[in-house]
Automatic annotation (TrEMBL):
Record's protein name: Glycosyl transferase
The keyword Transferase appears for this protein: yes
Keywords tagged on the record: Transferase
InterPro entries, alphabetized: Galactosyl_T_C, Glyco_trans_2-like, Glycosyltransf_2, Nucleotide-diphossugar_trans
Domain Glycosyltransferase 2-like residue range list: 4-148
Cited PANTHER family: GLYCOSYLTRANSFERASE (PTHR43685), SLR2126 PROTEIN (PTHR43685:SF3)
Entry's Gene Ontology molecular function annotations: transferase activity
Pfam families, A to Z: Glyco_transf_7C, Glycos_transf_2
Gene3D superfamilies, sorted: Spore Coat Polysaccharide Biosynthesis Protein SpsA, Chain A (3.90.550.10)
Length: 260
């Protein structure tokens, strides 16, 4: 099966550079990359074009005009352009380990979605990596314990120990916990069956929980990707969360309507 990795980005070329480099080093190469660009300036387009010329990755750039935070819409537009049967949603500030795609492929199963996990990087470590402009996982992993002891990363063990598939990964019902749109995977046909992400949910927050809830309500089971698919989430300042409460209210409203 071919996989499409959909990388969401917005005006952060330095982070996107490291993410794309990490995708170049994947042990599993049977995938394409679609950069879902939520209205970035011309700089991002120029960077992707230049990067693609020398990269072994198959890269598509899907862009729409900047009219505020419209992550749901740009992910849907990218999904429409995907040639893969299976979709992995990744954020443009989340560096993938070399076995990231391979691990997601291992966990992929019909009638299931996978919610992955992340390791948070400190601001200081993030700046150090961005200054280098070159991603080297072996070099990074050699200092994992130091990074953990000095607060550079918030997790250590999930990067050192990885586990296979099993029923222990299955969620029996919908829960908000550990839903991260920065590391999420499902079959393209399943995403299309629920009309993708809810495009009326604009602004930061909870469009990923809404997406997972609607998939599960459509009889798609949820599987945890923790202790297998962790990504390295570069530090960034908090986004404008003025719409978060309203988005959360709308998700809860859907949940209540479906359970009454």
């Amino acid at each position: 099966m071919k996989i499409s990795v959909i990388v969401a980005t917005y005006n952060r070329v330095d982070a996107l550079n490291l993410v794309l480099q990490s995708l170049e080093t994947q042990t599993d190469s049977n995938f394409e990359v679609i950069v879902a660009d939520d209205g970035s300036r011309e700089e991002t387009k120029e960077f992707i074009s230049k990067f693609a010329k020398t990269s072994k990755l198959a890269i598509k750039h899907v862009w729409h005009e900047d009219k505020g935070f419209r992550l749901a819409l740009i992910r849907n537009l990218a999904t429409a352009q995907a040639s893969g049967e299976y979709l992995i949603f990744l954020d443009g500030d989340c560096i993938a380990q070399p076995d990231f795609v391979a691990r997601h492929r291992m966990l992929a199963q019909k009638n299931f979605l996978v919610t992955g996990s992340r390791v948070l990087l400190s601001e200081a470590l993030t700046q150090e990596l961005l200054r280098s402009a070159h991603w080297d996982f072996k070099l990074f992993s050699a200092s994992l314990l130091k990074y953990r002891l000095t607060g550079g990363i918030n997790k250590f063990l999930p990067l050192k120990f990885k586990f296979g598939d099993g029923a222990w990964r299955h969620y029996k019902k919908f829960v908000w916990r550990r839903i991260k749109g920065c590391n999420l995977a499902c079959w393209k046909t399943d995403a299309q069956a629920i009309n993708g992400f809810d495009e009326t949910m604009t602004g930061w927050g909870h469009e990923d929980a809404d997406f997972v809830f609607r998939l599960q309500h459509n009889h798609i089971k949820r599987k945890s990707g923790s202790w297998s698919t962790e990504v390295l989430h570069l530090f960034h300042k908090m986004s404008d969360q003025s719409n978060a409460a309203e988005n959360a209210r709308r998700v809860r409203e859907k949940i209540m309507a479906k359970t009454l």
